[in-house]
Amino acid sequence: MNAIKKFALATCLIMFATGEKAQADEQSKLGKIDQMLDAMHLETAHRLGIETCIETASTAYYAPEEMVKKNGSYNGFTPKSAEWPKVEKLFKEYVKSTCTYMDYPALKALYVKFYMDNVTEEDMDAWLVFVQSQPGQAFLKNQDTIVKSLTSYSYQKSLEAGKAADMKLGTGLAALRTNDGGNDFTYLLMLGGKAFFAMTWLLMFSLLAFQQIKKRKSKPIGWAE
User: Which among 53, 54, 56, 75 has a CA at the least distance from the CA of 64?
Assistant: First the structure.
């Protein structure tokens, strides 16, 4: 019995020690991930990405000012409209909401999970050694400029592709509307003809009924047909 107790106690001690080591290893790895993300200027890159997105979207082809230049109005509003300042405010809120769909803590959590699941602590150590070297420092020195330039370029290309796709879609839909327009017009003519026919008969019936009522009113009381 004493042997069983000793074995159980030893097992618990081993499990406890293993758990403590695993927790310590996890904390060590998390600490190195924090160092990596700081070295990568992830928070700055996130901020620059949002700023670039807002800046580019504010002058995109679908912005109010651009739509006014192209179509003469933006959803029926022009700069001369009394509600134009509110239209601009709504669009700015729209742009901000689309460009800030993920805050920094949420983005950082994604990076932390990825590195925890896919990168060994040894690789993290090697990377940290690199960023502390002269080539690593030179790379990080230009990191913010690189991020802003690439973000601006990729977002601009995305807008250009979206514009081209919108134009292609609009052209295709316009062609379909033209094709269906003849059928719709014929259908409307048919409905209009039926409605005119029905209204004509209704008008004739009303006139006849009115004449009969008028005749009855003009007859002397007690007059029999």
Answer: 75
User: What is the separation of C-alpha 179 from the centre of its chain, rounded to a whole number of angstroms?
Assistant: 32
Distance CA 33, CA 217 (A): 101
**Cα angle 45, 152, 39; round to 5:** 20
Q: What percent of the chain has pLDDT over 70?
A: 68
Q: Cα 220 to chain center, whole Å?
A: 80
The answer to whether the Cα torsion of 40, 41, 42, 46 is positive or negative is negative
> Rounded to two decimals, what is the model's pTM?
0.58
Query: What Rg do the C-alpha atoms of the chain give, in angstroms?
Result: 38
Residue appearing with tokens 């039926």: 194
Tokens of 33: 């991930």
- Gap between the Cα atoms of 63 and 76, Å rounded: 14
155 contact partners, CB below 8 Å, separation of at least 6: 52, 53, 56, 57
Taking alpha carbons only, the member of 53, 79, 80 closest to residue 64 is 79
Listed residue (3, 16, 26) closest to 124, CA to CA: 26
- Gap between the Cα atoms of 118 and 116, Å rounded: 6
Of the candidates 59, 92, 65, 93, the residue with the CA atom closest to the CA atom of residue 77: 65
Tell me the mean pLDDT in the region 97-110.
Answer: 90
Residue-averaged pLDDT of the chain:
75
SS3 category, 77: strand
In this model, does residue 192 exceed pLDDT 60?
no
Question: What is 142-160 written as a DSSP string?
Answer: THHHHHHHHHHHHHHHHHH
